[in-house]
């Protein structure tokens, strides 16, 4: 007879984002309804005549946090992961754990694109002798997870999940899987991305995926609004420390919430567009709730993927309805990308941090910039101000979807 699977809990949170240099600063900015968007002042915006001239840049430059040698040896996306991981680890109380029972799982959508393009420019203009010797380890998508593993001595694996914009959320789900299967006691899990660079901006703009509200960056990301015209590109890193409940209790850790369930699916529909009826996304959500041993009636809040694209927002609404039917009527839906922008491979991890904080503080964060709600959105959207989630047990979902048809849902619950 098999023993019960371990309960996975969250004991630490860390983030560096367009809204703050820590997870708590970011959360307070979200609750206040602030936007992290601003006009880019880099010379390359004019040099390349980019059609989009704004983004959501880090609130606190990593040069104020990391040593110079660390910024020289790590691509920005790995730098962001390291900053967030150090905060999360300290928030968890710097747990003592055997290295062979500690793992890292840090995802990214694009990885070291800034290093790659800088190295290519050096090769093209100055020759092979001028290519930085650490270019290859810096540009590797697994460098963030490897860096975190080195920082904390994690020997139960340095895992890297690359599933576009769902990478961070899927990494957290994978971290829970490692604990449930008895392969680790503690996992440092999340995502990181640093893609505010002319090529990603030009590429997303060519797809007509980005908002072009150059004259009003802070109102550009407007999930569910009739006038939404694309997403706001953001950057940052977000990390959760996951732990088996048994391990956390044994060391007297402060438990923030449980990671009660997760669901993963694929649309197998289109490389970039979501399946319009939400079949795959709805399955991921339903599976996460089922995995948590709960029912749709138990879900009180969803931090939605809600990127502010014309097609994506309504596809997710359809998926929520398909998964939960009339039970969706009592779920408070938030679109926090309206403030943070879209952090690509870090987005689902940051929104997992928000989901954990929502459980902890019993608050659903707001969605800003909705002037005219799209009639196709028949859900209870939390607008402009936070909403209390009430007493009793809570179950909060974090939705994260990505190019390639990836769908991930994480379910966070109160801990008794």
Give your account of this protein's structure.
The protein has 416 residues and is an alpha/beta fold. 34% of the residues lie in helices and 19% in strands. The protein is built from 14 helices and 15 strands. It has helices at 23-31, 43-47, 68-73, 76-91, 113-126, 135-139, 143-152, 167-180, 198-206, 245-250, 279-291, 310-324, 337-340, 347-361, and strands spanning 8-16, 37-39, 54-56, 102-107, 158-159, 186-193, 236-244, 257-266, 299-303, 332-334, 363-364, 380-381, 387-388, 395-402, 406-413. β14 and β15 form a beta hairpin. α4 packs parallel to α7 (143-152) and α11 packs across α12 (310-324).
Name some characteristics of this structure:
416 residues; alpha/beta; eleven-stranded mixed sheet; 14 helices; 19% strand; globular
The helix fraction, in percent, is: 25-40%
- Average predicted local confidence, pLDDT: 97
How big a fraction of the residues is strand? 15-25%
Give me the strand/helix succession.
EHEHEHHEHHHEHEHEHEHEHEHHEEEEE
Q: Which strands sit side by side, in order, in the main sheet?
A: 5-4-6-7-1-8-15-14-9-10-12
Low-confidence stretches: none
The total of beta strands comes to 15
**Helical segment tally?**
14
